[in-house]
Write a structure and sequence with these properties.
With 448 residues, the chain is an alpha/beta fold. It has a single domain (3-67, 102-447), classed as 5-stranded Propeller (L-arginine/glycine Amidinotransferase, Chain A), CATH 3.75.10. The protein has 18 helices and 15 strands. A three-stranded mixed sheet has the order 2-1-15, sandwiched between helices. A three-stranded mixed sheet has the order 3-4-5, covered by helices on one side. A hairpin with a 2-residue loop joins strand 9 (255-258) and strand 10 (261-265). The chain is globular and about 60 Å long.
């Protein structure tokens, strides 16, 4: 039976703005308060989805969230009509309004952790929505995320869904941004690689000093238990706390893996040699041949990696066995990064080609190609059981492009977030989107 890695890209929401909400994310902080272009952001993301579809890769789409989140503001004490809640928040606590308007759910690498059926005890694909409790604006996402994923992967014979972990610091979970799976074939048993920034209960693990480590070892272990993963099919590794303090807030900013290959920076991990040996040993036991490509700090510094998002790229397997790297335009603009990529692809190694995409709107808020997609390994039967409305096709691309052109603004500043009309625009757009994607009622305004 054939199997595939399907990339489900996040559709950028109508309230895409530069609120500077993510401490530890250099791009998010440095572009704070600039005016954004939600329409351009959504169209850039859709263009990437279309391009991958046309290259022959399986591509899907994951819907954005309702914003501003008026219910979240009500839980914080604002009352009255929806318009009054927004007006009061803008007047009394603008940072809370900005947080409630965040379109950060576009980075669906943080939406959930996914384990394919070949790895799990019950032979189903397992999803655990990430609690994202390190940042308030992201911590409010998981209830809607769970409903959307449930509408996309509804067949209980093939799919299992778990609620987010307890929303406390000890179980900080950032989803697939800190999770990679290695395998010979997507439909075969593999090794799931969980990267954590700190341990909540074991002080033997060093912690960063400047920026928070968002993913805990304990959260990763809990997800592995929920998914029914075998001990011999899991490897845990600690992210280097020094690179977290340089702006590497998730592992997918310093490493990316696919198939049997890990592409990583020399400074990405602690105890790198023992980690690589464990990955090689465990993958070999299920018939795989683990390989790694290390980018030396002498060629690309951590600062280069953070500013270009070299590792926040998509590493994709092609039919001939070679790999394609999807990178943002910022990689081409960085002289050292581009020189390294040219030497990499001309060396005849594993990664043979690089394709560049303009994702400036996402990049300015701290998310590159890998942030925008959630990877789900599916066999033919499971792919057939996915809600067909979310699988990218030429007609769906046309419908979504027309939908964005119809509903999205081309400029959004912080002051615009106080406009109650923005909420009405967002709800109108999302109500139409659920019909396009055949999701049913997944948003609070549709349910309540």
């Amino acid at each position: 039976m054939k199997s595939y890695e399907v990339n489900f890209d996040g559709l950028v929401g109508p309230t895409h703005n530069y609120g500077g909400l993510s401490y530890g994310n250099v791009a998010s902080q440095s572009n704070s308060q600039q005016s954004s272009n939600p329409k351009e952001a959504a169209l850039q993301g859709l263009a990437k989805m279309k391009a991958l579809m046309e290259m022959g890769f399986q591509q899907g789409v994951l819907a954005p969230q309702e914003r501003p989140d008026v219910a979240a503001l009500r839980r914080l004490g604002f009352s009255g009509t929806d318009a009054q809640v927004i007006e009061l928040a803008a007047k009394e606590a603008m940072p809370l309004l900005v947080a409630s308007c965040s379109a950060s759910s576009m980075w669906v690498a943080n939406a959930a952790t996914v384990s394919p059926s070949a790895d799990t005890a019950d032979g189903r694909v397992h999803f655990t929505a990430a609690n994202l409790n390190c940042k308030y604006h992201r911590s409010i996402e998981h209830p809607t995320t769970s409903r959307v994923l449930g509408a996309m992967f509804a067949n209980q014979q093939h799919f299992a869904h778990h609620a987010a972990l307890p929303a406390v610091a000890q179980f900080g979970d950032e989803g697939a941004a800190n999770h990679t799976r290695f395998c010979r074939e997507y439909g075969e048993a593999g090794v799931e690689f969980f990267v954590f920034g700190r341990s909540a209960f074991d002080n033997r693990f060093p912690a960063p000093q400047k920026y928070p480590a968002r993913q805990t070892l304990e959260a990763s272990q809990a997800v592995a238990r929920l998914h029914g993963l075998r001990d011999e099919g899991v490897v845990y590794a600690q992210q280097n706390p020094n690179v977290i303090d340089q702006g590497v807030f998730h592992n997918d900013v310093i490493a990316v893996g696919n198939g049997e290959v890990l592409f990583y920076h020399e400074d990405a991990f602690l105890d790198t040699d023992s980690m690589l040996a464990e990955l090689q040993s465990k993958l070999a036991k299920v018939g795989g041949n683990f390989q790694s490509v290390c980018v030396p700090r002498s060629a690309v510094t951590v600062d280069d990696a953070v500013r270009s998002y070299l590792f926040n790229s998509q590493l994709l397997s092609r039919p001939d066995g070679s790999m394609l790297l999807i990178v943002p335009q910022e990689c081409q603009a960085n002289e050292r990064v581009w020189a390294y990529l040219q030497s990499l692809t001309s060396s005849g190694g594993l990664i043979r080609e690089v394709k560049v995409f303009d994702l400036k709107q996402s990049m300015q808020n701290g998310g590159g190609p890998a942030c925008l997609r959630l990877r789900v390994a599916l066999n033919e039967t499971e792919l057939a059981a996915v809600n067909p409305g979310v699988i990218m096709t030429p007609p769906l691309y046309g419908s979504l492009t027309a939908w964005v052109e119809k509903h999205y603004r081309d400029r959004l500043s912080e002051t615009d977030l106080a406009d109650p009309q923005l909420l009405l625009e967002c709800r109108t757009a999302l109500d139409e989107l659920t019909q396009i994607l055949k999701l049913g009622a997944v948003y609070p305004f549709q349910i309540n």
